[in-house]
Amino acid sequence: MIETKKRIYVAYTGGTIGMRPSSHGYVPVSGFLSETLANMPEFHRPEMPDFTIQEYQSLIDSSDMSPHDWQRIADDISDNYAAYDGFIILHGTDTMAYTASALSFMLEDLDKPVIVTGSQIPLAELRSDGQVNLLNALYIAANYPIPEVSLYFNNRLFRGNRSRKVDADGFDAFGSPNYPELLRAGIDIELIAGKLSTESQKVMTVSPVNAQPIGVVTLYPGISAEVIRNTLQQPVKALILLSYGVGNAPQNPALLAQLKEAERNNIIVLNCTQCFSGKVNMSGYANGHVLREVGVVSGNDMTPEAALAKLHYLLSKNLPIDEIKRLLITNMRGELS
Ligand SMILES: NC(=O)C[C@H](N)C(=O)O
Hints:
Blueprint: E1 7-14, E2 19-22, E3 25-28, H1 32-38, E4 50-60, H2 67-80, E5 86-90, H3 96-106, E6 107-108, E7 114-117, H4 130-143, E8 149-153, E9 156-159, E10 164-165, E11 174-175, E12 183-185, E13 189-191, E14 205-206, E15 214-218, H5 225-231, E16 238-243, H6 253-264, E17 268-273, H7 286-293, E18 297-298, H8 304-315, H9 321-328
Parallel strand pairs: 1-4, 1-5, 5-7, 7-8, 15-16, 16-17, 17-18
Antiparallel strand pairs: 2-3, 6-14, 8-9, 9-12, 10-11, 12-13
Helix pairs in contact: 2-3, 3-8, 5-6
The structure holds asparagine.
C-alpha cells in the first residue's frame, strides 16, 4: 500500500522569519518568504510533507498582534481543518507565547497538531535560525503529531500555553519554566511530555474571543494604591497582579482596600507570580493570605501570557463571574498544574 504524504498548512502572519532589511530596520515584505522557500531544496525533499503557504494580507511584526488577529488565525485553521493533517503558524517571536496561549484556549477539541514558530534572524539571511525551526516544525507536525497548540524553537517543542520568550537576542529564545518540553529534536527526535495523536471522533470548533479590558500591574517596592486604583478604572473587567514570590503583596491597607473594592465591583483580580518559575500559594505567608481574604484568585503556576489569554477567552463567553473564577483555577488545556 502506498502511504500518502501528510499535508501541512502553513499560515504566515509576519515576524522576523520572512522579513527583509530596510533603512529603518527589518520589515515584513509580501511574497518574500514563499520566494525564499521555493529556492531552498531541503524543504522539497521526498521525506518532507507536502505543504501550502498561506501568506496573510497584512504581514505584521508580532508586537502589533491583537485578539482580533488571534481570531483571524483560529478561523483560518478552522476553515482549512478538514483538508490538512497539521498546521504551522509562522509568527514573530515577541508575542508568540501570547498567541500560542490564546489559540490553545480558542481551539476547542483540537485533534491535530498546531505548531507556532518563527525565528530571530530572517530566513533569507546568513546564519538564520528560521530554516531549521520551520523545517523541523514541518517534519514534527507530519511525523510526531501532538494534538495540541505547541511552540517550536531551537530544537524544542513546548506546550504553547506554558511557553515564554526568555531571551531577546539569543537563539534559545523560549522556555517553559513550569512544564517539561513536549519533544526534543537532537540526533534523534525524543518525545518527552508530548502524547502523539490517536484515532479521534472529536469535532474541532473555535471559541470566539473579543478584546477585553484587562489590567496588568507588577508590584514593586513603594507601589502606591493609586497605581492599582487607576488601573481599576472602568471598564476594566480583570486585573492580573504580578506579585512577589509565592503570591505576596505589601500589607498596605490602602492597596488592599483597592483590591477589596475591585471585588465589590465584580472585577476579577488574578494573582500570578512575577518570578520566572514556581507557583502562587496564598497560604504560605501572611502577606499572601491577606490577598486571598480580599477575594484575589490564585493563578497557580500559569504564565502571565497564559493568564491573559485565558481571561480574554473566559470573559468573551459572558459567563457568570463565579463560573469564570472557577474556570480560572481549573486546568483546561494543561496550562496549570
Ligand atoms: N524575532 C522576531 O520575530 C521579533 C519581531 N519583532 C516580531 O515579533 O515580529
